[in-house]
Amino acid sequence: MEVRICKECGFILGTRPHMKDEGGVCLSCLNKHRKKTINWEERKEWLTKHIAEKRNPEVEYDCVVGVSGGKDSCSIVMRLFEHHGVKKALLVHVMDEFTPSEAGLCNLDNLVKRYNVDLINFRCSPQTFVEETRKSFFEELHPLKWIEQQLYAKPLEMAKALNIPLVFMGENSAFEYGESPECEIFHPASNEKTEVIFLGSIWPYSNLDSLAEAQKIGFKTLSDFDDWQRQGSADDFTQIDSKGYMMQHWTKFIKFGFQRVSDMACRLVREGKFTKEQAEQMIKDSDWICDPLAKRDFCKTIHITEEEFDKTIDKFANKEILVKDANGHWRRKDLL
Ligand SMILES: [Zn+2]
Predict the structure, then answer these.
(1) 16 falls in which pLDDT band (50, 70, 90)?
(2) Is residue 223 packed enough to be buried (19+ CB in 10 Å), middle (13-18) or exposed (0-12)?
(3) How many other CB atoms are there within 10 angstroms of residue 22's CB atom?
(4) Distance from residue 288's CA to the centre of ligand 1 (Å)
């Protein structure tokens, strides 16, 4: 199979499920141009009015915000309070069973204190987490499928149970990851009683803006601590909350030939920070690397050995685009 690369950002084409491309350009890049045609100021004004209209004096909270504690969570909460007149928000954080990073713990704590908000730290049954993660790891190499569903489901369930009219989430991932050309405001799970809104459809989503805003309120990156010198990643500020979670991303490299380095480096090309050539070099150098600490944490948490892990990886490796190098690492054939 011949590997195709996006002409604008350098992302691998044709392997990511649901990701579309036209004329050698990925839909994420095409959507970058579409973003310029959206009237963001109008959307922001609409949201401020909408929050006021939806406010119910008999309900304690204006909205629920699904948070991880990451930079996007900080920036969402900040924008809601400081720009859109939210008076009381309930944050819902869904825990996983992996080892949290020091940065992750510090950031969630800081966010809650900074805005003096109520937080539900939702811990799903540990045994169910382990069973579901093992099942989707061994059966389809999609280890965190179940917990990712919970990340969306729990904030919505909490909102419904407490009659809270609005739920906020971050980026509109179908738009940002090139699956849809429409930057829809409402999540498909919305209904009349409980609306789920992507804040990334109100403010144009940008990793760097989100990071800068979060740092204004004390957000820390992995580099601020010593517990995790992460490998196989192009940055120290995304998906930093827990260690084993990284395996959700790295396993995508095994199936589709890309993971976090591709995702982030190509996004930063779209955001004007890197050139396509810089992104391609970073992808070649490190997208294939499996972070050893994350792998160990993942295996320990779901009670499997690293040998069992490696065997499953070999079974699912996409041999059309990957080959093992002399050191036994799966690498993209086109980049060797
Ligand atoms: Zn692209």
Answers:
(1) confident
(2) middle
(3) 10
(4) 19
Count the Cβ atoms, other than its own, within 10 Å of residue 186. 13
Q: What is the distance in A from the centroid of ligand 1 to the CA of 173?
A: 15
| Residue 294 · residue 248 · CB < 8 Å | no
Structure tokens at 286: 């490190």
Q: Residue 276 Cα, ligand 1 centroid: separation in angstroms?
A: 9
**Amino acid in position 54:** K
Q: Give the single-character DSSP code of 290.
A: P
* Per-residue pLDDT tens over the stretch 155-204: 999 999 999 999 999 999 999 988 999 999 999 989 888 999 999 999 99
Distance 301 CA to ligand 1 centre (A): 35
Q: What's the one-letter identity of residue 105?
A: L
Residue 32 CA to ligand 1 centre (angstroms): 9
DSSP state of 186: B
**Separation between Cα atoms, residue 89 and residue 92, nearest integer Å:** 10
d(CA 260, CA 289): 10
SS3 233: coil
Pairwise CA distance, residues 178 & 12, whole Å: 12
Could you give all domains of the chain from N- to C-terminal order, each with its CATH number? 39-336 (3.40.50.620)
Q: Are strands 63-66 and 89-95 parallel, antiparallel or unpaired?
A: parallel
Residue for token pair 């909350």: 241
